[in-house]
Amino acid sequence: MALHNRVSAEELKKQLAEETFERVTISFYKYGNISDPESFRDELYRHLFEMKVFGRIYVAEEGINAQISVPDFNMDAFRDYLNKDDYLKDIHLNIAIEHTPSFWVLKIKVRDKIVADGINDSSFSVENRGSYLDAEAFNKLTDNPETIVVDMRNHYEYEVGHFEGAREVPSNTFREQLPMTVDMLKEEKDKNIVMYCTGGIRCEKASAWLRYNGFQNVFHLKGGIINYVHKAKEQELPLKFHGKNFVFDRRLGERVTNEVLSKCHQCGKPSDRHVNCKNEGCHLLFIQCEECAKKYNDCCSEDCMHVLKLPEEEQRKQREGRHNGQKIFNKSRDRMEQLKQ
């Protein structure tokens, strides 16, 4: 069998729309040595493909990072497969808060690291991480006004939802955040520092980085926001996360509370609706309310609206050889158009 997808995105999306069963969106990760990532990747692909699993998975020598969509009728088979694998057995699974379509294809890639961190110091180890906190322990520790809560997600994730009193480390990437966090907290090394992220993978590495840099009282939320919300609701605990939890799939967010914390990047009205600009040559990620979506035809600017009116062949010519890089609205800039320069 081919170990890569060979079907067009359009056909895969059509097949997804025609499915008559439900899917469960799951994320999981593990830090731990994988001696042969290529072989591990191929074996994983064979099994997940047979179970009709979609998703995006990164494999590296340092571990595995996965966000997937599993057919509900294959959940038992999926769990059985994990538990029969020496590396994957007993791995913690984060079940999504909302069950709407998230992926339409299976992609498994071998990377240098499962989370790009910019760390080149071979003496650093994720094994020396901070202490895990479950939902109840998180609430109890963060009730103390002296406890510092740090959001280890990107600025556009924090913008639509975060924990009460959480400090933002304003950046576009995790590799930018690590040195920024150490510098931001250097005068508060003796305090309890609690870190969190979406599913736990970033804050686990970040907690180890703080400890490596001399911080002692470091904690991180086990299973991240996703697991916290499930457990807090199950145990009827006060819910300290407000707003929307950003996710890196087609959903672009899971509603946790009805509060809207952010504003439309075009008109400034309350909105937490993340979208990508409809102009494929731009594809900017930004927040757009329903009214502006109609006004700008799902585009980020009048320039992109103009491009959409061009014949498809002309649009394709404009996209040729163009590299967008990381096209994300940066709230520290005055205008979105500055990102286009």
Can you give a write-up of this model?
30% of the residues lie in helices and 19% in strands. With 341 residues, it is of the alpha/beta class. The chain has three domains: 9-110, Alpha-Beta Plaits (2-Layer Sandwich), CATH 3.30.70.100; 131-243, Oxidized Rhodanese, domain 1 (3-Layer(aba) Sandwich), CATH 3.40.250.10; 274-340, no CATH class. A hairpin with a 2-residue loop joins strand 2 and strand 3 (63-71). Helix 6 (174-185) crosses helix 7 (201-212). The protein is globular, with a radius of gyration of 21 Å. Mean pLDDT is 90; it is low at 331-341.
What is the element layout, followed by pairings?
Layout: H1 9-18, E1 23-31, H2 37-50, E2 54-60, E3 63-71, H3 75-84, E4 94-95, E5 106-110, E6 131-133, H4 135-142, E7 148-151, H5 155-160, E8 161-163, E9 167-168, H6 174-185, E10 193-196, H7 201-212, E11 218-221, H8 224-234, E12 241-245, E13 254-255, E14 274-276, E15 285-287, H9 290-295, H10 302-308, H11 312-319
Parallel strand pairs: 2-5, 6-11, 7-9, 7-10, 10-11
Antiparallel strand pairs: 1-3, 1-4, 2-3, 8-12, 12-13, 14-15
